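Below is how a single chain appears once it has passed through the pipeline. First comes the sequence as given, then the structure the pipeline wrote out for it. We keep one example in the README because the format questions we get most often are answered faster by looking than by reading.
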Amino acid sequence: VATLAIIIASGSGIIGMREGSDAVRQLGYNFLPSVIGLMEISRGQLEARVVNRDVSLLEFDDEAPAKAPKLVERKLAAYAQMDKGRKAYEALPMSPEEDKLWKQFVIDYNEWKKLNDDLNVMLGSVAKAKSKAEVTEIFHEIRGHTKRVGPSAGATKTAIDKLVEINAKLGEAYYASSSE
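Resulting structure:
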């Protein structure tokens, strides 16, 4: 009887260790990398938003034509950071809920990116402007354009926040199952 109890307890322990190992594997190979990829996207988007705010301030700077190319460079670096996070995230398995959210994010992101690319072109025009009047006219166009960027920027931020939340909850669930 004691031997049977030891065999049963050992079997349960081995099964529990396998389940715990699977949970740790899921955390390390799926949920943590997912969150890291999503946070890279979020950080890149935040930097792009900061650049857009700096563009607004540039309107009142006499050195706007000289400073505009640096802002475009910063925006391109933000895009690269977002692309890095996107590649990392897309390579990982997704739950059905994540997949649905991600597909909508991609639509919103593409709209946001196009609007920001258009803004970069306008900013490039500032760098080529020959007069203060021309700079003022371009910034008038930029002000109207930045208002159109807002909805897609908000949608992409909301989607990333929800995706991080989903992965955090799934990770917590796996952790809880491994410690039972």
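Confidence is low (pLDDT under 50) at residues 9-17.

See the next section for the split statistics.
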